[in-house]
Write a structure and sequence with these properties.
The complex is a heterodimer.
Chain A (H helix, E strand, L loop, with lengths): L1 H10 L18 E3 L8 H5 L5 E4 L2 E4 L9 H5 L5 E3 L4 H8 L4 H8 L4 E7 L5 H8 L12 E3 L8 E5 L2 E2 L3 H10 L5 E5 L1 H5 L9 E3 L9 E3 L6 H18 L1
Chain B lengths: L1 E3 L4 H8 L7 E8 L7 E9 L4 E9 L6 E3 L9 H11 L2 E3 L46 E6 L11 E7 L2 E8 L7 H4 L5 H9 L6 H13 L8 H25 L7 H22 L8 E2 L2 E2 L5 H27 L1 H7 L7 H6 L4 H5 L7 H4 L20 H28 L18 E7 L2 E9 L5 E7 L2 H11 L8 H8 L4 H4 L1
Parallel strand pairs in B: 1-4, 5-6
Antiparallel strand pairs in B: 2-3, 3-4, 7-8, 8-9, 10-11, 12-13, 13-14
Helix pairs in contact in B: 4-5, 5-6, 6-7, 6-13, 7-8, 8-13, 13-15
The chains are: A alpha/beta, B alpha+beta.
Chain lengths: 240, 501
Amino acid sequence: MLKMIEAILAKRIVTENISFSGHKRMRGQLQCLNNCDGCGNCSAVCPVQAITIQDGKPAVDYKKCIFCGRCVETCIQGALQHSNKDVMGNVLTETQIQIGEMITAKLGRSLHVRHLDAGSCNACDFEMGALSNPIYDLHRFGIAFVASPRHADMLMVTGVVTRNLEQALRMTYEAMPEPKLVMACGACACGGATYGATYAVCGSAADIVPVDIAVPGCPPRPSSMIAAMCAAADILAERL
Amino acid sequence: MLQVQPENLRGAANIFSAAGKNPLAAMFGADETLRGGGLAIYCLFYNAEKRDMDILKAEFSADGDLSYPSLTPILPAAAWYERELHDMFGFIPREHPDLRPLVLHETFPEDFHPLLKKYPVDYQVRGSRKYEMLTSAGEGLYEVPVGPIHAGIIEPGHFRFSQAGEAMLQLDAKLFYTHRGIEKAVEGKTPFEALPLVERICGACSVANTLSFCQAVEKLSEADVPRKAWLIRTLAAEMERLYNHVGDTGNVCAGVGFSPVISMGSRLKEYLMQLNEMLAGNRFLRGLIVPGGVNCDVDENCLEEIDEVLRELEKEYRDIVHIMWEQNNFVNRIRTTGIIRQNTAFELAMVGVGARASGSVRDSRKDIGFGIYDELDFAVVTETAGDVEARIKVRVGEVYESIKLIKQLISKLRKEPEGSLCVDLGMLRTLEGSWGISESARGDNLHWLMLDEEGRIDRLFVRSASYPNWPALTLAVQGDIIPDFPLINKSFELCYACLDR
């Protein structure tokens, strides 16, 4: 027992600020440099058809993107590159929200989240589990995972929706009280294209229930999930 | 490979299993009608002596009788494989004691067998079939249904407990909720095109699945994977085993509400996930391993960082383990809970931590010795009690072995001269079955691959480590009290996604 208390005290606080930049090698948002000639190789090689060529430049649908890096490897010009930044972070700076201010604003609120795996590979689920570790400490933002949809403000869906889970998703959504939100978390739930169309898959989360907010990534990094949950708390506040 | 008539499959399987010395590693079907064949059942048996797999095949005419004498009565390990064969191809194993559906739930019609080539991959058909749960009846007995959506952040599965008071009399597990049809989805793709899907069969076993798949592909080529690539691959594989085991050591304590250790374990796991991102650009090590080698190097800074983090981590991990064994009330909960006897482990052909905690000395890194594992010094950790405590002890022992392995790999990588990281595999041999194996944190992960005339995937079968261990979980809980189920479940720490595909 003493050893345990000693270990807890010795570590002090390990919680860190969330960050949208990863290690140098992280495959984050795609950047296209000026020497792009619009050849379309990136679009052809994309396993989930997330890239289309618009006005001679690749446009990326981050709802589908699995950040595999194939487009970057294929680019002959070397014009397409991964940055080490999360897409979610950039979505937020576009709306001119500084993370620091946002967090302060959120501290007065709360969001209760019910997780539902609709057919994921479990990577999103493990990252969601990581949100509760002492490094990310989700509770400091007033956000908590709850055990029942009846206690939840938001349903956080991971995975493509499989035929075997379609009914569970519908019923869980219906069991939630109003006002309610749905977050599609990760490329499968957002884009539904990860495994293509198969006999066992119904599509993305939005094909079954109304989705309010999407978090790109395969899987999204914990920081992205936290930012998205804070943004969701804002949306919920507007609906009240 | 030996080919037999369907009627002789049981007899041949009996001989191949060598009275249990060579356990059944996998059993699956294939539709070979597009190239003039029929339907086939393949059985793979481990052969530790030859460090290889023995392969048994039975061929059926496509429009003829698909029944054959079930293997389950003589090899209980075949039970779920045969239920899957029944669902996916329509095979009828006669005398199978429990031929309920396995993969396809209520919304699929009875006569739909998705892996038959006549159905396109996106064939959507609705129907209704029965999926009855196994229950016990009698005075004072009652049922407790749990799932598929659970209270915590875990994957979906439905468990039906038949209770006599607090004691679990019987448990039936309905799984395959996250069945995405990946085996069908990769058909017609080249191995390169299929790779992102294979990497996404499971998050926590991304490396294991990719490594097994790549080895299956590489066996169809004349080219040799460069040694340096194997060093980096093995580093990734051991990192994956390590982060899983460290996280699971903490997580098993969630089964008894032992919060400080949950928190400490999850913190250490996070440090490893951050190392993964540095190594591969992805926290689950995706995108690193490719057929022919690896696609990025590991530089000195990276090795130094891993070395440094592991040194600190090992020290802290030892403290955590000390804290766990010091708590008598924790030890009371885990000792003699959820026992799997050696004989059961053996009959179900269990793998990984589950098997090694029940006295079975099986580890594909030693038994098959793929890649460069033969050059490395490590021990296979085993226990004999077969309870939750034994499984935790095996896991803890494997953490130290993985750290030892990573240290060896770092020093080998430092000495390894600059060289190629990936070899061009050239033309791959077609119409030839090939398998690849790797050791995930949950046990050995086996892939079977066959390419068609054009070099596209004709059949991929994925037998993850969780497959043979799931049926064991339902036996382990019998007689224990229902509050111990989460604990027993977490001590196995099986993947749903890997199993469901």
